[in-house]
Design a protein that fits this description.
About 30% of the residues lie in helices and about 20% in strands. The chain has 18 helices and 24 strands.
Amino acid sequence: MLFTVFGLGDSAYERFCWASKKLVRRLLSLGAKLFVEACHADEQERFGYETALMPWMEKLFESLQEMMPLPDGLEILPASQIPAPRAGLTFVTDEDPRPLLPVEPVTKYHEATLLVNKRITTDRWYQDVRHLQFHFKDPVTWNPGDIAVLHPHTHPDDVQALLERFEWIERADVPIRLSRTSTTGHAIPSHVLDHPTTLREIFTSVLDISCVPRKAFFEWLVHFTSDSLEKEKFEEFTSLSEEGQDDLYQYTHRVRRTILEVLQDFRHVSIPLEYIFDVFPLIRARQFSIASSSRYPTVPIHPTTNSSSSQQDKDETDSIQNGQLSDGKKEKEGVYLDLCVAIVTYRTKLKAPRRGLCTTWLSSLKPPPLDSSDPFPTVRETNGDTNEKQSPKTNNPLRIRVGIRRGALRLPPRPKPSQSSLKGDVIAGVQVETSNEKENNACTPVICIGPGTGVAPMRAIIQERITQGETDNTLYFGCRSSSQDYHYSREWEAHAQAGDLTFSVAFSRDQPEGERKVYVQDLIERDSARIWELVGKQNAWVYISGASNKMPAAVKAAIRQAAIAEGGLSESEADTYVGKMEWEGRLFEECWS
């Protein structure tokens, strides 16, 4: 058997390309032979996976031509020949456009109302982190670790700029129908085909003009410019020459230049409408860890810090502890889903401002007023200022569809309930064990490590276990400042006072000048005796969530050190023990780069 493998990975993660490397080793051990050297692409390279893909594909095609020459009469199409478009567009003035409802595999969608879009870092803090709360009328359920899937919209100003750039304004809102005209290339999303829509809607919710373009984008522009100098530049960008690669990197990736900005720079590019699904990439769905339990009996809307919270925030928190909204209304029937999201804004190396597509869209969503007479009002979109007062009559309706997808995280198996534990209290339709029953019902301890917005799935775990009467919960949270970005501080304190949580917080920038910064792994090292008691003697489960930088590896190193210092294991035995925890599912990571 002859084979080759192209693996996709990210070296920011500890097990970089683990699956593709294991596949290669296994096939080689079974006697298979590589006809082209396997390649394990790294998304951290300056062009992402394309850095390795293009040279590897050249070798692949050369090898395939040698092994399997084309039959007589057939030849490879020249690069100068334009492929046929994948989509056909027909204007249909006698039909009304309908909203496009994108779908993702293995994802169940529900319609939700946004109740809360609240900044939980202080106004003077460099990062805007939002607490968002969605309400479902239906009895939606999910498990801790499950994923919320959202489909963002491009900012209306950017869509308008693109339509003006190609002089499509007059046809932007005329209904159209799309059909598939070619079976080659990537498939056109099914929710777009045979549904009356508009160009404005397509560039708002389907095609991405806000991302940094890949090489394939410039390969198409070669065909659609009328200027010889522009064509020469596009051909240089798509070549494998070192000079061309450097020019492309400096022009696009280094400054994070978007597709819209590229098209505004190259004014002689004219893209035929039937090719828009070939040229422009699709807007990707965004996934967020759900930050609440669907079984939790209250509506927890918490400000970030005690020092910066207004009296209204404090009153809101106090009233919510009793299952009430801040205006005194009882909570609505249904289910509440929380997200903890960092709004992506930054400046490039050339000081150009940039913003994340999805988080910009999320920050622009304005929840309805709590005193609305409509129990399920329409969510409205603003220009990004969630404090802006607008009349509902002047706002465009926006349907919020939230998908829920099963995550990989699992909770420890629950102990078999005793007869007495079936008689616990019922709060808001949820059975919760009483304090005496909690003491009699031993459970597997959990240790949650979640700095920053990595605390989102940890919050869901802790809420879920509290509803189940399981109180042996430990949280290690990390942030920069106790007064600026201490997410859900009063919630952790309330759980601790109730005996449901033990928690520690690392404030990395609050140390006196000249002293070493403190991170979550430092707290675990400090608590090594308790960590080993939980992990080594009580078989605790450990959950790590956050950025895939040095933190996950440092946390596992701290657990290994506890096994050595407190458990008497050798270094190799400690490595084996932590590896076994991962293999058994007792140590779980949910990290991102």
